[in-house]
Structures are given as C-alpha cells and as structure tokens.
Amino acid sequence: MHPPVSARLEAIVSLLLPCRALADVCSDHGLVALAAVQRGIAGRAICADLRAAPLEVARRNIARANLADRVTAVQGDGLAPFASGAVDAVVIAGVSGALIVRLLTAHPEITGSLTQLIAAPNQDADVVRAWALAAGFHLRAEAMVSERGYFFTIGAYRQGEGQDPLYEHPEWSAPELCVLGPLLVAQRDTVTLRACEQQRSRLGKLVARGITAREAEHALWSRACAALSRSGG
Ligand SMILES: C[S@@+](CC[C@H](N)C(=O)[O-])C[C@H]1O[C@@H](n2cnc3c(N)ncnc32)[C@H](O)[C@@H]1O
Fold it and tell me: By C-alpha distance, which of 143, 92, 149 is closest to 119?
C-alpha cells in the first residue's frame, strides 16, 4: 500500500473524473498520481517535478505500491516533459497560483487539449480563477479544505464554450467571484465560512493599523462572511 493520503490530497483525488493519462505536475511525493491509478480513476499517471530529490520520493512510493508499470516519474519544469496529447488530465497542487498559471500558459498545446484540470494552489487562488475564466476553462467543482491550521482551495475545471456562466451573478461581480470562488460562495459550507472569517479578521487588523489599501478587500470578505452566515452555515 502507498502512504495514506491527507485530507487535502484526498479532496483533490475525489474531484478527479476518470481519465486516460494523468499528469501530477509539481508532484513531489506522487501520492495523487498513485491514488488516482490505484482507485481506477486514471489509466496511468506521470509524476513530474522540477527537482530530483522529490522525484526520488515519488519513485520510492511508486515502487512500494508496485505500480511502476502504470505510474512513472519525470523531471522538468511544469508541463515541459509532456508531448502534446500525452495526457488528458492535469493536477497541479501545493504551489502558488501564479506558478500554476505560468506553467499552464507556457504550454498552450498541452493545456488546450486537456479534458480536465485540477488546480490546488497554496495561495493566490484568485489568480488561477481569473486565468481560467479568460482561458475558457469552466469551473466544475470547488472545495475548501482545512489542514494543519491552513485553508486550501481546490478547483476542478473542464474546457467550456464562451464565458463561464458561474461568473454571471446578481450579487457578486466577476472579479469578486475570482477572489471568493463562485462555487464556494454558492455551496456555503462551514469550512468556507471559517476561511472567510479568517480573511476578514486578518484584513481587519491591517485596516485597523491604518493600511487603507486593504479596505476594499476587507469589505469583500466581510460581505462574504455575512452571505455565508445568512445560509445558516
Ligand atoms: C509543496 S510541494 C507540493 C507537492 C504536492 N503536489 C502536494 O500538493 O502535496 C511543491 C513541489 O513543486 C515542485 N516544483 C516547484 N516548481 C516547479 C516547477 N516549475 N515545475 C515542476 N515542479 C515544480 C517542487 O520541487 C516541490 O516538489
């Protein structure tokens, strides 16, 4: 058996739809790739990482799971190791939203042929949503996960036609929804409410210290807390 999958990685795997070949980009340990193949979600998977040391960990996990025939590991920058059409699904998790967008935009021939993309940034989720909105990737599902005192958002995307309708909302503008997450706002779960309250509190302290540049952001998260609380959590 491969090592246990954490709540965050579990949420990522649970959002994956069946695919032929999965690229676990910025894979480190490769646990997402392994779980996806073991559970029959991906026919095969490739772990890709910029650095050799994390790939060694991935290779050890692959060997332990006895899945070397279906899970491989390659070194390289983002999607660079992949030929066009080699994978139909990509997961990028545990890095910044800005890096996720850089890696996806560097290889439009691969990104453009994906049937699904799972992005789980550890910061700047708004940057990923704004890129996806402009690039024609529609949000299919979103999750908020709390782990070790941090909140992580996970977005599952598919290729869509025209503008993602989730961003046409009576209460929120598209830029506001890029920050908040259109499905997270709609789902109104307690973890999302706690994440909103954390943001409101963090930004409120900055505003109280006279940092007026954060006032609009603080007001947005305060509105989000009120909207999520209205639902009764
Ligand atoms: C914090 S780990 C995330 C591991 C795993 N995806 C997760 O979510 O648990 C980030 C990994 O991204 C890799 N990485 C950073 N920049 C990269 C790039 N440009 N291309 C591929 N991998 C990269 C690092 O070497 C590291 O192993």
Answer: 92
